[in-house]
Amino acid sequence: MVKICCIGAGYVGGPTMAVIALKCPDIEVAVVDISVPRIDAWNSDKLPIYEPGLEDIVKQCRGKNLFFSTDVEKHVREADIVFVSVNTPTKTTGLGAGKAADLTYWESAARMIADVSVSDKIVVEKSTVPVKTAEAIEKILMHNSKGIKFQILSNPEFLAEGTAIADLFNPDRVLIGGRETPEGFKAVQTLKEVYANWVPVDQIITTNLWSAELSKLAANAFLAQRISSVNAMSALCESTGADVTQVSYAVGTDSRIGSKFLNASVGFGGSCFQKDILNLVYICQCNGLPEVAEYWKQVIKINDYQKNRFVNRIVSSMFNTVSNKKVAILGFAFKKDTGDTRETPAIDVCKGLLGDKALISIYDPQVTEKQIMRDLAMKKFDWDHPLHLQPMSPTTVKQVSVTWDAYAATKDAHAVCILTEWDEFKSLDYQKIFDNMQKPAFIFDGRNIMNVNKLREIGFIVYSIGKPL
Ligand code: NAD
Ligand code: UGA
Known about the structure:
Blueprint lengths: L2 E5 L5 H11 L4 E5 L3 H7 L11 H8 L4 E4 L2 H7 L2 E4 L19 H13 L4 E5 L7 H11 L6 E5 L9 H6 L4 E5 L3 H14 L8 E5 H32 L3 H9 L20 H14 L3 H28 L8 E5 L14 H11 L3 E5 L5 H9 L16 H6 E4 L2 H5 L4 E4 L11 H6 L6 E4 L6 H7 L2 E4 L5
Parallel strand pairs: 1-2, 1-4, 2-3, 4-5, 5-6, 7-8, 9-10, 9-12, 10-11, 12-13, 13-14
Helix pairs in contact: 1-3, 5-6, 9-11, 9-12, 11-12, 12-13
Bound molecules: nicotinamide-adenine-dinucleotide and uridine-5'-diphosphate-glucuronic acid.
């Protein structure tokens, strides 16, 4: 029986390994982590992450060929293939701070693999890493190898949160990069056979190591660039009377452009787009390519512009002040169907409103009060560096409340801001919400999910991204 161990039981490690266990009953999969609460949660009825379809799979496989453990060294020692799926945040201090990837977690995992291994292993980069990371990891592994052979592969993950299970079941492609040596080809083939249990072989792309590493950064940069492009257009739509939904539909029907990922929004969030583009920018700068770096930096600049523009729109529409006005925030997660708040645009919007002394009342179906308060107290990029947590200032605490009900959040509010496209927000009773709000009652739809005309008929003053005012 092939044994797989995955270091890092997070949003990628957990679902990816659960699907491998489900699709490959002959493989024993152990997911390990240094975080005791996280592993406890994986072994409980309340999994540490919310992802549609995940719970069923975990229940089917857990205890049979899927195990969650904090005994990292034991499982690494016993494994034939070790996936490394630890976090690779943006550095907050030192060389490259605010841009470069912090590979501390990766390096410590690699050193541990080298220390505890007693047999040959394939080590798979699952985390998103800067191009050429495998070279550094190889040096660490080989340096301590005691004659043990390691083959390093790059197998970046392309799943999106909220649809992780569907993405893992039917990936557009699986990408595996390896050394172009007989041993490298053999390792690539071994990993390919794992995926071939459910992925058609013509969808398993094999490349050299550096192409695989760079393709991941490139894919995220291209995806984020589409959102910044349509968001840039949304600003122009508002100035000209064009409607961004109509424009993106018209543009997206060109089969060379395609219709996906063209929804204008308050800005993209999530743990990866910004981090990976900043990392790409840094790599370009380090390689003496300032023009290329500047090009990709614009994707982030437009995203920041879009979030600021949204806050400015709220404040200016509400007679230039939101001081002491209750503003209801519907949705805090970075997208629907997840409880993940990493880099969610809601953080920037809420901080902008708090800066203007608004009283904000937040409702999200999957995000806890504790999480929201933590997020609002944190500095940029600190979410992935738990040691930097700081308490929220007492004034800010007074300005924020979190509810478990959209109607409570909107009661007596002057404005409602929709920041996540949760389906349930579309079917709320907006007449009831309007009746219980201060007048004039404003709605700012940061996701373009609402029927603007219907809301205007009720009496709301409505602002929807990229739509005629
Ligand atoms: P995460 O923070 O949810 O999980 C990482 C886990 O690694 C944490 O539980 C942490 O405790 C653990 N860890 C860190 N160092 C460790 C060590 N030395 N030993 C054992 N465990 C350790 O992160 P994630 O969202 O799963 O992302 C992981 C990687 O995958 C990142 O590089 C990210 O860019 C990439 N990625 C993420 C997504 C996504 O949707 N979240 C998608 C594709 C790729
Ligand atoms: C993204 C990529 O889609 C995955 O392929 C990749 O594996 C992952 O990043 C990663 O590397 O972490 P994810 O961040 O989970 O996945 O979710 P997306 O669906 O890509 O959404 C990202 C953000 O963009 C969300 O805030 C979403 O609301 C926003 N978005 C998305 C838009 O504003 N408009 C769109 O048209 C699409």
